[in-house]
Amino acid sequence: MKFYLISDNVDTEMGLRLVGIEGEVVHKRRDFLEVLETKMKDRSIGVILITTKLIELAPDVISEIKLKQQKPLLVEIPDRHGNSKIGETIDRYVSEAIGVKL
Description:
By secondary structure, the chain is of the alpha/beta class. It has 5 helices and 4 strands. The chain has helices at residues 10-18, 29-40, 52-57, 59-68, 86-98, and strands spanning 2-7, 22-25, 45-51, 73-77. It has a 4-stranded parallel sheet with strand order 2-1-3-4, with helices on both faces.
């Protein structure tokens, strides 16, 4: 299994490419969802890394995928410009999954 990056930032893509992770850069919700759908069908990809800004373009879709599908694993990563609210995101996912506010 391999990693794949979907980023809104060229610098993030280049940095991860240096460690052998392929990826692509998109900026619009429609483009992001098209790439995501395509890469989710690729059985060789086990983990899809997605920058925070892209997650914010389609939080409903990402939540649905995380709750209903085991593979590939979708992982939110902050880019060099942003601050990360991953803890809040995880709390929201757990709250939606079990129906209890944390």
